[in-house]
Amino acid sequence: MTDKLVEALKDECERQFENCRDTAVSNIVWLKVLRWTNIAFTVAPIIFGALATWKLLADSTVWAAVFTLLATVLPPVFKAINLDGTIKDYEKHAGEFMNLRDRFRQAKLIGSQKPVAEFEAEVQALMTRMEKARSRVLAPPNWSFKKARKQIESGTYTHDHDLRQP
Hints:
Largest sheet: none
Helix content: over 70%
Strand content: under 5%
Low-confidence stretches: none
Number of strands: 0
Mean pLDDT: 90
Shape: elongated
Radius of gyration: 24 Å
Distance between the termini: 30 Å
């Protein structure tokens, strides 16, 4: 019975390792997009303001008006979508799932060598931590999950140590 319990806990650790890895990488992929969007929202109004006052556009009031509109509308839109807060949320979420990924791997490889009661308590503590991490649901777009899976399958997140032959 003890061996079956240890094997079941090891299997669960492996499942949770994969869940955490996939969630973390998906969040990281989306986080990169959010950071570039943040840069764009910061730089674009400056560029549009410069274009609106550019001498070459002095004859084109339509373009000057469009660039002026964009330069004045983007900053309040940026503030309204609270991208800085969203970025912080995804940073914390991705970090927590990366940490949990490593802890589940360690539990499977190292914790499973301990007495069953200790191993079970370790897994239970990690599951409690996982439930807390999942209480804040962030939903990156589906394409970021698909891109994350491609990166994982290509070996981007595989440790060199794991590639060595025994």
